[in-house]
Amino acid sequence: MPWWLFRRRVSKDGGGSDPAAQPTRRSVGEVALPRLRGHRRYLDAQPYLLPKDLGEVNRLDFQHYVLRSLLRGNYLAPIEQPRRILDVGCGTGQWAIELAQQFPQAEVIGLDLEQVKVSSSPPANYRFVKGDVLDGLPFESNWFDFVHQRLLFLAIPLSAWPGVIQELARVTCSGGWIELVEGGSSSSNFTPAGPATQQLIGLIGQLAALRGLDSEGEVMRSLDRYLLEAGLINVQRYPIEIPVGEWGGRLGSLMAIDVREGIKAISAPVAARFGLSEQEVLDLLDQANREWNELRTSYSLAVACAQKPTAS
Question: For the Methyltransferase domain, which residue ranges apply (predicted)?
Fold first, then answer.
């Protein structure tokens, strides 16, 4: 197994009608829902940091294949034969579609703000539902056997994360599993980070902070806590280091492409906010790319899984 794949640490601390057709009225943690909706109003003026265009659609599909290669599969949670699966923030839907193919007996739902890619021949057991976790999930409580959410640290406001995880736990059935995959937009996620990398990621972090998003890797560090505070058990955390650059072989080369394309996608707003030309930002990216190979840089992210207790 490659050295960068993952190091496992397991925590043992405690933890009728079509449900997708009718939004539930139950709030996040009873009183948290209005607060989460307030975050959505805030983000209407300051949207998700990355664009929603064809380039980003292609990058998200590419990123999916990188992560699948890294994890040697689509998930790490110890699920067996789930009946219902939910992917929150499904993006292009590729992860959910592959789960539908893997578990043809299961109902698989991908949820996002909008359907950015329409598959020409999706599996019969997959469907897309339009929704926003910040407004509460439009499903009944205790409905899904497996709930998955990945790389939304640049989409969900930092202060909303505890309530979001509570909402994921609400729709998970007793004995079901939640899996979270998150990274960060902090230079501490890149180790070692050269001066160009630190400057570039620092600018992106500042832009994220201005929009109420995580800029210091807080979300990634807090996944275990969020899950435990939501009442989940059998929390398992997998710290992962991914090589960035050709020095890391095929996986490192793919990851470098993903990082470069993601940064290119936001080079214009970064330049506009900090009084730079877009070419200056791209030149900084070129310097950072060279540093990744010279310093053998890796990017850190984490996968965390937890189980909802069985009803007594």
Answer: 85-176
* CB neighbour list of residue 262: distance below 8 Å, 6 or more residues apart: 50, 59
CA distances from 36 to 28, 45, 47 (A): 8, 15, 15
Q: How far apart are CA 134 and CA 74, in angstroms?
A: 25
Which of these, 292, 168, 154, 305, lies nearest to 218 by C-alpha position?
154
Read off the amino acid at residue 194.
G
Residue tagged 């043992």 (tokens): 12
Distance, CA of 163 to CA of 224 (rounded, Å) = 14
Radius of gyration for the chain, computed over Cα atoms and rounded to the nearest angstrom: 19
Give the count of beta carbons closer than 10 Å to the beta carbon of residue 174: 12
**Residue range 197-207, pLDDT digits in tens:** 999 999 999 99
DSSP 302: E
CA distance 141 to 25: 11
Write the DSSP symbol of residue 310: P
Q: Is the dihedral of CA 221, 227, 233, 239 positive or negative?
A: negative
Q: What's the CATH code, domain 36-308?
A: 3.40.50.150
What is the model's pTM?
A: 0.84
What percent of the chain has a predicted confidence (pLDDT) above 70?
Answer: 82
The tokens describing 120, both together, are 């020409």
Q: Are 95 and 64 in contact (CB under 8 A)?
A: yes
Total residues found in the chain within this entry = 312
Are 246 and 293 in contact by the 8 Å Cβ rule? The answer is yes
